[in-house]
Specification:
328 residues; Rossmann fold; 16% strand; 7-stranded mixed β-sheet; 10 helices; globular; single chain; 37% helix; two-stranded antiparallel ribbon; alpha/beta
Length: 328
């Protein structure tokens, strides 16, 4: 397997700036936020809305409470989620970037299916590290009708994600949240015998230590124009959400090794890769594991350029059989 070159990247400015970077064409979050509509749907957001340096309505994206209120309003406006909350200190991700990953994943499936996106409840997706916010399953189901399994090593995250699903009738029967009992495992202990997934997605812990995570948060605060003395993470995050031994490269390499032991359980395994330098080691691991095909897809993620890597162990005959049995 030859390494796949990474395509050109586009910078994604901080939300609230005059123009956003180009998002995926199907992403609902194009252009400026419609604060009048957001406030009509979610009046609590008004406490956090202020004119920015361009005299346009915005929020302080370095304030965790403001980000949470913004997410709650966006989920209500675009995805019909009436009840959504997460505990203090848990990751509160920017929704436009999360939606972009899912739309690009839909394109990945379409490229394997004659240009047609497989939709509906027959398409099953595993979200490794679903978190308390449950964002990927919510958006993925609302946009494409997919069913999800979300796994996490944190019992509180699983409990809260289940509460979000139970509180919103439109999500009933579409999202199954499962506790990963062993933090050293990724798939084992979560997948049931014979269970198949069309996609695996993952937003891995990016940092190798708590110190690395704190340093990255300081840099993010400088980009947002916030005094670095403020200790709180602007998007929150528990230890398992932010860092792990080996950082993102180590985590994805573990994913690769475990996925090689389940080569026919999923069509496309994927993971976000924040650091471009992580790709070389991950590609070497995929080559060693015998991946049949690898894709690296550039995308906007938050305020910076990012990408995800995708791999499959299915040969052409197996891919054709998968399409005929599951996507027709």
């Amino acid at each position: 397997m030859r390494p796949i070159p990474v395509g050109p990247m586009k910078q994604h400015p901080t939300a609230g700036s005059p123009e956003k970077a180009a998002l995926h064409p199907r992403n609902r979050h194009q252009g400026r936020y419609d604060f009048a509509q957001l406030l009509a749907l979610s009046p609590e957001l008004a406490a956090y809305v202020r004119p920015n340096e361009h005299q346009a309505d915005s929020i302080d994206f370095a304030d965790p409470a403001a980000v949470k209120a913004m997410n709650r309003a966006l989920l209500k406006q675009y995805y019909g989620i009436g009840i959504w909350d997460i505990p203090p200190g848990y990751l509160c991700p920017p929704i436009p970037g999360r939606a972009d990953y899912l739309h690009h994943l839909a394109d990945l499936l379409a490229a394997s299916n004659g240009g047609q996106i497989p939709r509906g409840k027959g398409i099953r997706v595993l979200d490794v590290g679903v978190g308390a916010n449950c964002i990927y399953p919510i958006i993925g189901h609302r946009e494409y009708g997919w069913r999800f399994v979300g796994s996490d090593i944190d019992p509180v995250a699983i409990r809260v994600a289940r509460q979000i699903v139970a509180a919103n009738p439109g999500l009933a029967g579409t999202i199954d949240c499962r506790l990963q009992p062993n933090p050293a495992d990724i798939f084992r202990g979560v997948l049931k015998p014979g269970e198949l997934f069309d996609l695996v997605l993952c937003n891995p812990p990016f940092h190798a230590s708590a110190e690395d995570a704190a340093g990255a948060n300081g840099r993010k605060r400088q980009q947002l124009g916030t005094a670095p003395a403020q200790p709180a993470l602007n998007f929150g995050g528990q230890a398992g959400e932010l860092w792990c031994t080996g950082g993102e490269e180590g985590f994805v390499r573990r994913m690769v090794a475990e996925s090689a032991r389940l080569p026919t359980a999923c069509f496309w395994f994927t993971a976000l890769v924040s650091k471009r330098d992580s790709l070389y080691g991950i590609q070497k691991a995929l080559d060693k594991a015998g991946a049949r095909a690898v894709r690296i897809v550039p995308m906007a993620q938050g305020h910076k350029a990012s990408r995800f890597i995708a791999w499959t162990f299915l040969d052409e005959a197996q891919q054709q059989e998968w399409r005929e049995k599951r996507w027709k």
